[in-house]
Design brief:
Blueprint: H1 3-29, H2 31-38, H3 42-50, H4 56-72, H5 74-93, H6 98-125, H7 132-157, H8 164-175, H9 181-185, H10 187-207, H11 214-222, H12 227-236, H13 238-271, H14 277-299, H15 307-328, H16 333-348, H17 351-361, H18 368-394, H19 401-422, H20 431-439
Length: about 450
């Protein structure tokens, strides 16, 4: 595949990351509005996080989608999966009670999970050796652009925002002239979810035009293994098992922190930081801008410099804001901005970049997507449990935030130590070369 077509396909597939992170942050930016509209408790919010694209919904989808992508192809996933995503987003948009909202979050989350392993696998398989890291970074940039755009829209449409008069007009048009209060305010979140519906339709249109991965075709012509056979091989090959354990460990410990940041951060800003919903969205928008800018710079160098160095640097930026929390707190405006900027830079150098890169490099084509789906299932599933635990640690009004910060620091230190110990040397090698070095003639 040429450099031009590689970049084109990367951009098309990377829209899945926009939709993944966008779904998480769309829920997060409007979570207080839904809470007020439906009278939800912190436990209700915990369950929304637990079954969403942030956790269990994506976990269920990933383990299904990974093995389907290895059996039927990456293009098979691209052809049908975003139809499910659009269904889930539509259900959220139309929600008038908690069960509807819960189902919408779950369906959207499942679709996100189905698409992730196929997306990262396809990007790596369609990339040139010297651009594989760059293309994964482009994918990660999309993961940052999604929240940045969604949060910016959330800020504009939020009660008191610059375009809230337009939200009021839409709300009155659909709900009647007597619609007021929380029932009217929540229309700002409904409109944000509608923007995801539009992007999902565009992404589905583009991805249906993609050609199948040449690596998948070559493996299928060699031997079209069944799903059960691939699962058995994944669990019986010692190298594959060790690789799964390593990648799941570094991604889980980082993602337990990132999942909380992704879903609860605006809520944390409002409760522990004492700012308005609009100000919370501004802070988060700047955070994601820092993520995108940092990833853009990294894309220029990741295929040429030490991956271990970048990995360590990213974790140091991840730990720094939480150390600040336990030492100075985030009660002041300066602390809030420092917290947002530091974590934003971390996002541009994050563990997720290396998980996506190594997860698609360190497994053979026959169960490459399935292995990623399995790990994603474990990580997002445990993140669902952690999301519920976090709501108890954090408390109704952020009284447990310092204790939560200590937990975050411990998790990130584990990710740092394990990642450095097991960091693989794959830079500058083809996928076929990496597979042969690790598995021989599998």
């Amino acid at each position: 595949m040429s450099k031009t077509s590689s970049l084109k396909s990367t951009i098309a597939v990377s829209l899945n990351n926009y939709l993944d992170a966008g779904a998480i942050v769309a829920g997060a930016s409007g979570i207080t509005l839904w809470q007020n509209y439906l009278g939800l408790s912190e436990l209700h919010l915990g369950w929304l996080n637990a079954i969403s694209a942030n956790a269990l919904g994506a976990a269920i989808g990933a383990i299904i989608g990974g093995f389907l992508a290895d059996k039927f192809g990456r293009k098979f996933i691209f052809t049908y999966n975003l139809l499910v995503y659009m269904t889930g987003v539509l259900l959220v948009m139309l929600s008038v009670n908690y069960p509807m909202l819960l189902c919408g979050f779950l369906i959207t989350g499942i679709s996100v999970g189905v698409g992730v392993p196929a997306s990262w696998t396809y990007i790596s398989e369609s990339s040139e050796v010297g651009n594989r890291g760059r293309n994964i970074c482009i994918s990660q940039m999309s993961w940052g652009v999604g929240p940045m755009v969604i949060l910016f829209l959330g800020m504009l449409f939020a009660p008191g925002g610059y375009l809230f008069s337009w939200v009021e007009a839409v709300g009155h048009l659909i709900g009647g002239a007597d619609l007021t209060g929380d029932a009217l305010n929540v229309f700002s979140s409904r409109i944000v979810f509608f923007s995801l519906f539009v992007i999902a339709f565009i992404a589905w249109t583009l991805q249906r035009q993609l050609e199948e991965s040449t690596e998948f075709i070559a493996n299928k012509e060699k031997k079209n293994s069944g799903i059960v056979e691939n699962i058995q091989l994944l669990f019986t090959n010692k190298i594959a098992v060790r690789t799964v354990a390593y990648l799941a460990a570094i991604y889980l410990t980082w993602n337990l922190v990132a999942s909380v940041m992704g879903f609860f951060l605006p809520h944390i800003y409002e409760t522990a930081g004492g700012v308005s919903n609009e100000q919370a969205n501004w802070l988060s928008c700047v955070l994601w801008f820092c993520t995108v800018a940092t990833t853009a710079v990294l894309s220029l160098f990741i295929d040429r410099i030490s991956h271990k160095f970048i990995y360590v640097l990213g974790l140091l930026f991840a730990i720094a804001p939480w150390v600040m929390v336990v030492t100075t707190g985030i009660g002041s405006s300066a602390s809030l901005w420092a917290f947002a900027i530091l974590w934003g830079i971390e996002g541009g150098l994050s563990v997720q970049i290396f998980y996506a890169l190594w997860g698609s490099e360190l497994f053979p084509a026959k169960f490459r997507a399935g292995a990623q789906g399995l790990m994603f299932f474990v990580v997002r599933g445990l993140s669902a449990v952690w999301g519920l635990i976090f709501t108890y640690i954090y408390g109704e009004n952020g009284e447990g935030f310092t204790l939560a910060a200590y937990c975050m620091i411990a998790l990130l230190v584990i990710s740092l130590v394990v990642g450095v110990i097991g960091c693989p040397d794959t830079r500058g090698k083809s996928l076929a070369q990496i597979t042969k070095e690790r598995y021989g003639e599998l």
